[in-house]
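Translate structure to sequence.
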């Protein structure tokens, strides 16, 4: 199920050219994945307390256009399938309806000892 979240670009997000510093896009994508989990009915901290820790295994990002100070962007997260041990999500960042960043994120689930475990049902 697709999930959407909006964010505003603040001064702290930008570099000396006034555009979003590339590493901050990763933060926006991470926030969107966290909000997606929270929207499913259980906050991420509860999943973690139950021994389910979600980690990025692989991340592919394409930066198409920059976001700038004051822009309001939207992250759209769409599940792409996977297995009981890996999930793939497609994430795009939109600015005024135009895709400015594309990402494919591969997640794994780890237990409290950082060992691979199955994803819980419904995640």
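Result:
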């Amino acid at each position: 199920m697709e999930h959407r979240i909006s964010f505003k670009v603040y001064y702290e997000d930008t570099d000396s050219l006034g555009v979003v510093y590339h590493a901050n896009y990763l933060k926006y994508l991470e926030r969107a994945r966290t909000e997606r989990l929270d929207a499913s009915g259980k906050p991420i901290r509860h999943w973690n307390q139950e021994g389910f820790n979600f980690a990025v295994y692989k991340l592919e990002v394409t930066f198409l256009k920059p976001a700038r100070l004051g822009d309001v962007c939207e992250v759209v997260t769409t599940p792409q399938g996977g297995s009981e041990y890996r999930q793939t999500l497609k994430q795009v960042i939109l600015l005024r309806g135009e895709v400015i960043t594309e990402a494919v994120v591969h997640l794994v689930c780890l237990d409290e000892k950082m060992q691979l475990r199955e994803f819980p049902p419904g995640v």
